[in-house]
Amino acid sequence: MKTIIEPFKIKSIEPIKFTTKEERAKILEDAGYNPFLIHSDDVLIDLLTDSGTSAMSSKQWAGIMDGDEAYAGSKSFYRFESMVKKITGHKFIIPTHQGRAAEKIIFSITGGPGKFFPNNTHFDTTRANIEFTGAEAVDLLNEIGKHPEQRADFKGNMDVDALEDFIKKVGRENIPFVMLTVTNNSGGGQPVSMQNIKDVRKICDRYELPLFLDACRFAENAYFIKKREKGYENKSILEICQEMFSYSDGATMSAKKDALVNIGGFLSLNDETLAMNCRNLLIVTEGFPTYGGLAGRDLEAVAQGLDEVLDEHYLQYRIRSIEYLGEKLLNGGVPIIEPPGGHAVYIDAKRFLPNIKPEQYPGQSIVCELYIEGGIRAVEIGSVMFGKKDKKTGKFIPAMMELVRLAIPRRVYTQSHIDYVAEVCLEVYNNRKKLKGYEIIYEAPMLRHFTARFKPL
Ligand code: F0G
User: Between 3.30.450.280, 3.40.640.10, 3.30.70.260, 2.170.130.10, what CATH number should domain 58-308 receive?
Assistant: First the structure.
């Protein structure tokens, strides 16, 4: 087998700025040891997120020039709509400015106090949009998905028995719809199998419930199905995507991931009345139904990106580049969620720094050291993000896992960038005995990880 290469040439480049270790130590201190507060031009390799950070193709940039900016009935909308229909098979396509705008609309209409939305694992914005309406977001992940060190092909699967028990417990009339997040971002970018989608569909049919996909990374999920699930090896990625969506009644999508653009999203639906209600809310909050908070040029870029993401050479390179980083870390002894996911490698900070207690934020400690050592920006997904204080006793309640996510932007970094990232991670790991915990000295009442300030202990 020959080296899997980047399936593109580079036509336009963006220089990255080098800083010294001393400069970075000062920059980090000024940012309160919170990488969210670092200016991006002080970052050498930015692995904060894979969202909105893709490099667009020359055809997408050409589409930007060609976008039709008509307020109503833009030709770019119709190109976008027909591409989304081709992949999802859904009847009504509603553009939004990003994923959470689609979530806001659908949950405002279907949510409310007393309602429940089951999912394999809700992403934070999905959970926040559900809870904002007074409804409850419920995670029903398969047991294997909760164990970072155990390998399985489809660790994003929903626990189907738990779903049925849950429906019986709260009553089908209190569940507006069931959701599946493909791939499961909060659980390590792990895929959901076609069998699991079918099994969830069967339960939904039994209780007459609609099924929605949180489809941000649908193409990466389809590639895993092709590679790992029997019967799909000879199907095209488009066919697999079409089958995945065929079991669903609707989807929310952040085009900032698998549509390879910097902004955009959509809500797709089969139910006409629901679509009409969503469009009416869209007009109030986002814009007219043929642009929905986007420019015509953005819709053009999304349509082109959705076409390009189905290319198997692209997906092979994409999934392999994450696996490649995962292998290098594992070979160096760095504990990660296994196997590596579709868009990111997640370092297991609990096993990396067993001597730093969750209340001293081991993930934050690794994130800070990655920046100082190599100018790499990652994100803590652990007790900084999800830790709580007991309202009565003030006692610290840790997150379920202490993770550091290295999310890889699409088509942005080359193999040597990834080699460099692995070298820095190994260096930090080999010096792990020197790492210290952190304490929070400022935090906002909600979503504190974005603006918190820290002090090393
Ligand atoms: N659903 C999932 C599974 C996501 O990962 C995201 C965003 C959203 C919904 C919301 O989409 O950002 O366009 O509003 N995830 C980004 C991340 C922010 O870094 O993982 P959005």
Answer: 3.40.640.10
126 lines ligand 1 (CB under 6 A): yes
Q: Where are the domains of the chain?
A: 21-50+311-456, 58-308
Pocket flag, ligand 1, residue 256 (CB < 6 Å): yes
Nearest CA to ligand 1 atom 1: 123
pLDDT at 266: 98
What residues form DSSP beta bridges with 89?
Answer: none
**CATH homologous superfamily, domain 21-50+311-456:** Aspartate Aminotransferase, domain 1 (3.90.1150.10)
117 CB less than 6 Å from ligand 1?
Answer: no
- Alpha carbon of 371 to ligand 1 centroid (Å): 23
Is the CB of 121 within 6 Å of ligand 1? no
CA of 410 to the centre of ligand 1 (A): 15
pLDDT at residue 124 in the model: 86
- Return the pLDDT at 36: 96
Ligand 1: does its nearest atom lie under 6 Å from the Cβ of 343?
no
* Mean pLDDT of successive 10-residue stretches along the chain, which has 457 residues: 93 96 98 97 97 98 97 97 98 98 98 98 92 96 93 97 98 98 94 98 98 98 98 98 98 98 98 98 96 97 98 97 97 97 97 96 98 98 89 89 96 97 98 96 88 96
Question: Is ligand 1 within 6 A of the CB of residue 254?
Answer: yes
**Mutate-to-test residue for ligand 1 from 117, 185, 385, 408, highest number of ligand atoms within 8 A of CB:** 185
> Taking CA 85 as the corner, what is the angle to CA 80 and CA 90, rounded to the nearest 5 degrees?
135
Q: Is 100 in the pocket of ligand 1 (CB under 6 A)?
A: yes
The pLDDT of residue 269:
98
